[in-house]
What does this fold into?
Amino acid sequence: MERNARFLVDILRDNQPVNRELGQHYLFDTSVLNAAIEMAGDLSELHVLEIGCGPGTLTHHLLLAGARVSAIEIDEGSLRHMKLQFRDEIDSGRLSLIEGDALIVEFPPSIDAIIANIPYQISSPLLERMQKELRSTPAVLLVQEEFAERMAMAIGPLDRGPLGLSLWLDFEVEIGRRVPPSCFSPQPRVHSRLIRLEPLNRLSVLESDIDRRLFKQMTSQCFTDRRRKLRNLLKRAPRRISRIPGWHRERWTVAMNALKEHPLMDERPDMLEPEEWVELCELISSIES
It folds into this structure.
C-alpha cells in the first residue's frame, strides 16, 4: 500500500495503544499537512527540525517537500514504527531520528526551520527553549487554538500577556488555519491552529538593550491581576529578581520609588502596548540603587 497519512496513523495505532500522558493526537488530515508545508514556504534542501514525529504523517510531507528532517521522538513504539516505515529515508540520510525529551535533548546543529505538531502540554516550556536556542529560526507549529491566540495576542487586550509579549521580542507571529478535532486520531477536545513564527529582533529595531529576564519577570508579575494598576503590581520585587545579575530587592524598591509618579504606572497591564513594556523596562533598568 502506498504510504500516506491515514495509513501511517492506522498502522501505528494497530500496533500500540495511545499514550495520553504524552498528548498523542495524530494529525492525519492531508489538507492541514499541506497547509503547514505551504505556510513554511520553500523547504527544498533545508534542514528541518520536527518535534514529536509520532506516526510520521508530517515527516512524510516534509520529505515530499524536499527537506532533510531531524525528528525528535520520546515514544519507543513510535520510533520503532518510524524506523520500519521510513527505512529508505533513514538509510539515505534524509531523515534522522533523535530519541529523547524535546525539552532536554540536544538540538541538532544548523537547523533552517522548525515545523511540528507539538504536544500541547509542553508548548510553553518548548517555546521558551526555542527562544533561548533557536530564536533566529523560523517555525510553523500546530498548537491549541487558545494558546495560538495568546502567542499572537490576537484578540487585542484580552490575549495580551507574558507569553505573547515574550514572543513579540523575537518573532512576527502569524495565525493560520483553524484545525478541528476531527483532523486527529484520537480526537482532542479542543480546536487547534497553525501558527508561524518569523524571526524579528524587536530590541534591535527599537535600539534597546533591556535584559530579557527582567522583561519576562516584570510582565509575568503584572499579569497575575489584570485589574490592578502597575504601581500596585510592581510594588513588590519579582520573586526571582536576585537571579538577574546586578539586581536585588533593594535596587527594585529604589526604582519603584523613583517611578511612582510616571504616567505608565497608572495603567493596567492590558492597556500597555508592547513597545511601552520595553519603555517601562528601560526606565526601571536606568535607575541604580
Q: What stands out?
A: The two ends are 71 Å apart (CA to CA). The chain has a mean pLDDT of 94. The first strand starts at residue 26 and ends at 27.
